[in-house]
Design brief:
Blueprint: H1 10-29, E1 32-33, E2 40-41, H2 44-55, H3 57-75, H4 80-94, H5 97-100, H6 109-139, H7 143-174
Antiparallel strand pairs: 1-2
C-alpha cells in the first residue's frame, strides 16, 4: 500500500470538475453588466475562491481555467489574457489554503482576515496587473481601456469575495467537524 500523500487527490479532481462547471454556469448565466464595457459583476469569483480555499492552489488554478475557458467558448471567442489572470488568481487564492483552516472547521475571524487579505492582493495582481498587461501584449488593446476594465473587475471581485466568499467559507467550515471535538463514549 502506498502511504505517500498524493499531490492532487481524486476528491480534488472531482471538486475541480464540479467547481469548473459551477464557475461556468455563474459566469455565463448570472453575469450582471457593470457599466464598464465587457466587464461584469459575477458571483463565480466567490465560488472559485471557496474551492481554492478548500482544495488548494492546483484546484483553484484548474477550476478557474476550466470554468473561464468554457464561458469564453460559449460566447464564441477565447480571451486568453483573462483566462490566465483568472487561473493565476485561483492559484494565488489557494496557495494559503492551509492557513484558512476551513476543512478543520476552524474558519474564524483570524482566518477570515487572512482569506480576505490574500484575495484582495490576488485580485489586484490578476485584474490590475496580469489581465490588462496581457491584453496589451497579446491583443494590442488600448492600455487605458483594459486597465479600466481590470480595475473594475478587481473592485467587483474583491467585494463579491469579501461578502459572499467569506459567508460561504464560514458556512462550509461550520459543517466540518473540528479537530479533537469528538470524544469516545465510556
Amino acid at each position: 500500500m502506498n502511504t505517500e500523500k498524493k499531490l492532487v487527490s481524486v476528491r480534488t479532481m472531482v471538486a475541480v470538475g464540479i467547481g469548473g462547471a459551477i464557475v461556468f454556469v455563474l459566469m455565463r448565466f448570472v453575469a450582471i453588466p457593470s457599466g464598464v464595457p465587457n466587464t461584469n459583476l459575477n458571483l463565480a469569483c466567490a465560488i472559485l475562491t471557496l474551492f481554492a480555499a478548500i482544495f488548494g492552489p492546483v484546484a483553484g488554478f484548474l477550476t478557474a481555467f476550466i470554468g473561464h475557458t468554457l464561458t469564453d467558448l460559449s460566447w464564441g471567442g477565447v480571451w486568453w489574457s483573462w483566462i490566465v489572470a483568472d487561473a493565476l488568481y485561483g492559484f494565488a487564492a489557494g496557495a494559503f489554503w492551509k492557513l484558512y483552516r476551513i476543512e478543520e472547521g476552524a474558519f474564524g475571524v483570524k482566518q477570515a482576515v487572512i482569506f480576505n487579505i490574500v484575495q484582495i492582493a490576488a485580485n489586484a495582481a490578476a485584474w490590475i496587473g496580469v489581465a490588462p498587461a496581457l491584453d496589451v501584449l497579446i491583443y494590442q488593446e488600448p492600455a487605458s481601456k483594459v486597465f479600466l476594465q481590470g480595475a473594475a473587475a478587481a473592485v467587483m471581485n474583491i467585494i463579491v469575495v469579501l461578502v459572499l466568499g467569506t459567508l460561504l467559507a464560514v458556512s462550509y467550515s461550520k459543517t466540518r467537524v473540528k479537530s479533537g471535538s469528538l470524544t469516545e463514549d465510556a
